[in-house]
Amino acid sequence: MEKSNIFAVIPAYNEEKNILDIVRKTKKYISNVVVVDDGSRDRTKENAGKAGAVVLNHMINLGKGAALKTGCDYAAKKNADYIVVLDADAQHDPDDIPRFLEKLSKCDIVFSYRKSSRTMPLVLHFGNWFISNFVNILYRVKLNDTQCGFRAFSKDAYKKIRWNASDYSMESEMISRAGRQRLKYVQIPIQTIYSDKYKGTTVIDGMKIVLNMFWWRFAKNHR
Predict the structure, then answer these.
(1) Is residue 186 packed enough to be buried (19+ CB in 10 Å), middle (13-18) or exposed (0-12)?
(2) Environment class of residue 159 by beta-carbon count within 10 Å: exposed (0-12), middle (13-18) or buried (19+)?
(3) Chain-centroid distance, C-alpha 91
(4) pTM of the prediction?
(5) Has residue 206 got a pLDDT over 90?
(6) What are the residue boundaries of the structural domains of the chain, listed by start?
(7) CATH architecture type of domain 6-218
């Protein structure tokens, strides 16, 4: 793993306050850090570059799924052996990265789950519980938190889980593809700070995710 070509991919939208610190912390563990500026209207791009990241730019906001795919495609073209993906809003602690890399030596993909805390909004707690149970029924993939975006996977796994969704449902589509492909996975607990309870997956997003999960399971053309 020490000699492997490892990339970190961080999708970002209007995160000028957090991106500098996130990139610098991530570079303590991974030298190849890619930030995808998803049409930000602030100084996200400039600050990410100042911190030493490779910055890819979307002229308009296309959504987290689209931004993450842009970054992962770039890493794949650069012959990445492993890819770690995390959010730019400081909810994920880059100091957890070594734990992901350690687990990757024995599996295809590493998921994470946010430890339950009083700071987790109730709607997110219930939504995660519902979607996680739905995923287990449809795909036989048992995860505590299907919507946590802090993940890592091998280059071969990325080819199999590469998603179509451009929004937050990409995290569930990744799981559906991992289940279909019978990829070997593990999950690890992480600490998460909820600085903005209205940011991230909404109730409407959750409803779309459930419908998509059902469609992905039974649609013959979904590969």
Answers:
(1) middle
(2) exposed
(3) 12
(4) 0.83
(5) no
(6) 6-218
(7) Alpha-Beta Complex (3.90)
Cβ 9 vs Cβ 56: under 8 Å: no
Residue-level pLDDT at 19: 98
* Greater model confidence, 23 or 146: 23
Measured distance CA(61)–CA(39) in Å, rounded: 4
Residue 79, CA distances (Å) to 1, 109, 161 in order = 14, 17, 17
Q: How far is Cα 83 from Cα 24, in angstroms, rounded to an integer?
A: 17
CB 147 within 8 A of CB 160: no
Q: Based on C-alpha coordinates, what's the Rg of the chain?
A: 16
Amino acid (1-letter code) at residue 50:
K
Tokens of 96: 């957890």
Looking at residue 195, its pLDDT comes to 60
By the 10 Å C-beta count (0-12 exposed, 13-18 middle, 19+ buried), 166 is classed as middle
Give the pLDDT mean for 66-92: 97
CA 190 → CA 14, 115, 133, 149, distances in Å? 24, 6, 20, 11
The identity of residue 161, as a single letter, is I
119-149, pLDDT tens digit by residue? 555 555 556 666 676 676 667 778 888 888 9
Distance from C-alpha of 80 to C-alpha of 68, rounded to nearest angstrom: 15
Closest CA to 106 of 8, 184, 197: 184
